[in-house]
Amino acid sequence: MSRPRLIVLLLALITLVAYLPVARNSFVNFDDNDYVTNNQVVQDGLTWAGIQWAFTTWHAGNWHPLTWLSHMTDCELFGLNAGAQHYVNVLFHTANAVLLLLLLFRLTGALWPSAFVAALFAWHPLHVESVAWIAERKDVLSAFFEMLALLAYSQAVTGGRRQATGTASNLSRVTFYKAPFYWLALFIFALGLMAKPMPVTLPFLLLLLDYWPLQRFPEFRLQVATVSRLALEKWPFFLLATASCLVTFLAQRNGGLVITLQQLPLDSRLGNALLSYARYLWKAVWPVKLAIVYPLQNQFPWTQAAAAAVFLMVITWFACRGRRRRPYLLVGWFWFLGTLIPVIGLVQTGGQAMADRYTYVPLIGIFIAVTFGIKDLISRFRMGIILPAVAASLILGSCLYLTERQLSCWRDSESLFHHAVAATKDNDLAHYCLGLALAEQHKLDEALVEYRESERLAPDRFQTHRNIGSLLDETGHPDEALVEYGEAVRLNPKNPLLYDSLGSVLARLGRFNEAMNQYEQARRLDPGDPRPYYLMGKALRKQGRDVEAVDKFRQLLRLNPNDLQTLLFLARTFASDKNPEIRNGAEAVALAEKANALTGGKQPFVLDTLAMSYAEAGRFQDARQVGQRAIGLALAAGLEETNAMFQRLELYNAGQPCRETFTNTSPKDLPNH
Fold first, then answer.
1. pTM of whole model > 0.85?
2. For residues 185 and 152, is the Cβ–Cβ distance under 8 A?
3. What is the b/e burial string over 606-641, where b = at least 16 CB atoms within 10 angstroms of the residue's CB?
4. pLDDT at residue 254 in the model
């Protein structure tokens, strides 16, 4: 086996083994719900309706149909097996590292520096977030297409010949965009944009590669004529990038993710951008205290921002000054600066100051600049191979160790956000998500503490007030829950579910008129939602207003004709209610027969309801036959309702219907075996 192939194989194997722990990880409660766990279209797998949805939706504030299709494929193959879906991310990440190695080796002819850059990319802990987070499939998938597009472009320029470092391309003056690989690169670029808009900077990367190592700039001179010619050569790439930027902005604005200048002024955005560039560099060197969320600071540190600006300008001056002798410094530095522009916060989306996942492609530039700079130093001072090999091994070993530690934080939502709270200060979103994770495990007291801290740090997040209200109501404090739900409604007055929740608390406190007002408000906000009718019917039942309650449940069925619990509840009510104004044998039979058809005629409780309905309609022979079948199925299933069923069967044998009281029950209170 040749040395390059052996290095490729080792890179892939070590990466796959290093990321093995993700196979034991679960979904997390941040974005995974939008992308998989609460997304029924995705969970249905690859369907024609799902494919249409993928190409037309702006769900989750983005247009990325290939990402949706990849998640659908996962569900088609693995269902909701989180471990398998995690490892698909690992496979893409491994492929990206291999493609990066092949790209750099083809462009530079320098095997070991190319391998070192690829290994840093594969094993650096800053990249754990992009790989260990199922919702970030879009990151590894778009980078996969970006690497392929760069390879296709290099093929178009070099004709497949490996470039030797320091050698100018003989195609520097040839209009090559008629070549098939040029158009292949453009097609792959389009695929990358359909996975995530992050590759919009690829035309800029192509120009950087033209400078070095392709050396399509004569003598490394940045002449206007050369820049213009090479930029014009890439006009289809720039056109696609512009279209993607526009679509992304519209999608994110439609999703309410774009922060206005009133919310975050331009000077704060610029200051945060400068600080973020510096912090990304620091975390590349010292990757500790990594977190899934870094909150924007309320009091902006302008002194630190000014220092960051000076630091960045010094590096930029140094890279530009040495561009002829050390062109890789200019290319690597501007690769880093340029590819971060879409996510540096000048167009702010969400409340994060920065994110580890944003460095997935940009850090390649830093790795290139540092690695090839060290390569030149080794050659200049004739250091030999032992010291560089030892240093490289220590660096890569440290990366693997820190990556393993960071992977352990992604085990589940609780561990992820416990780590985020510990690694950052005043992180309201991390406290909120930790509260969610604790509440899901019924650690209600601990969850309430986290919610309260999130509420203190960000009092305008309605979801926090809603969740605190839910916890207080669940733990027997409805008066306090009424206050929290009221604040949630004030903060988000167009959310019908909040009115439903507030109304339910009021109903439990016996404040039925106020509760009905809340339900009515929810109904007005979303006339097609059956839930307010169910809640109104339930409240009316508690007040003994049976006729009005039945009317509300009928309205619910008009909106959702196949709601099984409501079908059963109304059928039993019409068949056996003690109030003769409510009983209606014919309607009871129609509803019960529909419920029986929906359940395949094998559910004992449904059959019992059908028997009651037949008895009310005077069809006692049918009632006896169906009642006996219900009892047989109930006995076989070991259910406890058989005594009541036997008593009702005796009534049918005597030619009598049964009578029950439903004043304190509602559809969801009934069993559904």
1. yes
2. yes
3. bbbbbbbbbbbbebbebbbebbbbbbebbeeeebeb
4. 85
